[in-house]
Amino acid sequence: MIKIIIAEDQQLILKDLCNKISKIDDDINIVATAINGADAYEKIIDLRPDIVFTDINMPIMDGIQMIEKVKSKNIDTRFVVISGYKDFEYARAAIKVGVDEYLLKPILIEDIKKILNNLKSKISMKQNDYEQHIIDKLINSTVTDKPTINTNFDYKYYYVILFVAGPYSSFTIDFDTQFTQILNNIDLMNISKNYLGIDDRMFLTKGKNNNEMVGIWASNHDYSNNIRLFCDEVISICNEKDVFLTVGLSRPIKHIDNIGITSQIVRTVLKKKIVFSQSNILDCSKNDMYVHNHRIFLTDNIEKSIKFMVQNNQKDNFISTCLDLIKTLKENSATQLEIDKCLKSLKDICNTYILSEYNISDIDIKIDECISSSSNYDELSSNIKFIFNEFIDDYNKNTLKNNSMNDIIQSSKEYIKSHFSEDININDIASLFSVSPTYFSRLFKKEVGIPPVVYLTRYRLEKACEYFDNTEFTVKEVSELCGYSDPFYFSKAFKSIIGVSPKTYKSKIKA
């Protein structure tokens, strides 16, 4: 409703103007009239009208003086000056004080209609901007810090709708991902028009993170079903873009000033309930939304296996187990919070055994970034594999700074010579120097010219020949002395390297 005050000292003109304005639009309310500038000023201060029609030449205080005085109070009112004078000085004075329209007597209804249509459009735009500003302030307000509302939000129900494209971002500092512009590129306001009731309204404001949007659905009816249909359409559009969308939907709120705390509640629920890589609507009006029974996927047996792999530098097995764990998370439709806890538990195991020299907060940030930037489980697996590969390899490289290359190779040779008769393998040797078996094998071959497994085999068989040359031990006894529990396998390895079987070699020595 547009509020109007008319100031005119001539009663007949005042009455005629009131009648004509009243006939133009039902959305107009003449809240007061005045016969002089001083009276008009007092009523404007008290009633805060949207538009004031005022004559220029009035007693006590003329129209120009009254307008200047009102504007000094920073009251947002539109002024239409009425004058029977075509004198340029009056028009110039009116323009100088910032009037919006100039109406000449005799007053025609067509002129009034044209002026009112123009001013109503400006008032409506400004009112919408102000209401949007209030919504923006309320969304970011706290219980103790609410903005003053100087406008009528007279809807019966308000719904908070939180849209999150892709994973929930847990970063305190926002950063761009593939999801940043998704919601900005969808015309949510236009889509909502298909579901809004008559006189209902949708407000949109930016969320806490770049991949979020907050909607406020204002209605005089229970349109919860329409809201879900609206959300379903937005989800469908996102799915076509291969992006999963999570929507948090509040219960209906009766007071507009509660949307700030309600949006925080919706955000808290969504953060704990968002299912990674699946589009979903989370109805926060349901009680079960506030029960958070997070499942544990990193069982004691898996944890023991991982600890063993980490302790023994079995990087490939560790990475494989991590990927299997992610596959299990996918099969069980894990929440993002469950995935986060699981991956950071893996990080804690690594920290205990091999990553103690690193800044653990950096690894946490990398895991957060990994989850926040992955659109599906394939991307998540690839990103996690890269993170743990990088840290384990960096650890191995840093370890080698404290153990020179030659020292490691020389020490590994000495270890082989001292323990060749035991059931040892390359994994055992690599773990002594806190490097992965793959990295150790590559390093050993580079320095010695052959892989460590070949070096171990050759040394064992050289010792076997010495036993055959200098003792009366049987083939089975020599195989055990050289670290082979299986005589058949020993014979096969012996013939492959020496060229003849152990039995033949031994008989030639005797001859």
From TrEMBL:
One of its GO terms (biological process) is phosphorelay signal transduction system. One of its GO terms (molecular function) is sequence-specific DNA binding. It holds the Pfam family Response_reg. PANTHER family: ARAC-FAMILY TRANSCRIPTIONAL REGULATOR, HTH-TYPE TRANSCRIPTIONAL REGULATOR EXSA. Signal peptide: none annotated. Keywords: DNA-binding, Phosphoprotein, Transcription, Transcription regulation. It comes from the Bacteria. It comes from Romboutsia weinsteinii. Residues 3-120 form the Response regulatory domain. InterPro entries: CheY-like_superfamily (IPR011006), Homeodomain-like_sf (IPR009057), HTH_AraC (IPR018060), Sig_transdc_resp-reg_receiver (IPR001789), Tscrpt_reg_AraC-type_HTH (IPR020449). The keyword Transmembrane helix does not apply. The modification 4-aspartylphosphate is found at residue 55. This is Stage 0 sporulation protein A homolog. Residues 410-508 form the HTH araC/xylS-type domain. PROSITE patterns: HTH_ARAC_FAMILY_2, RESPONSE_REGULATORY. May play the central regulatory role in sporulation. It may be an element of the effector pathway responsible for the activation of sporulation genes in response to nutritional stress. Spo0A may act in concert with spo0H (a sigma factor) to control the expression of some genes that are critical to the sporulation process. CDD domains: REC_YesN-like (cd17536).
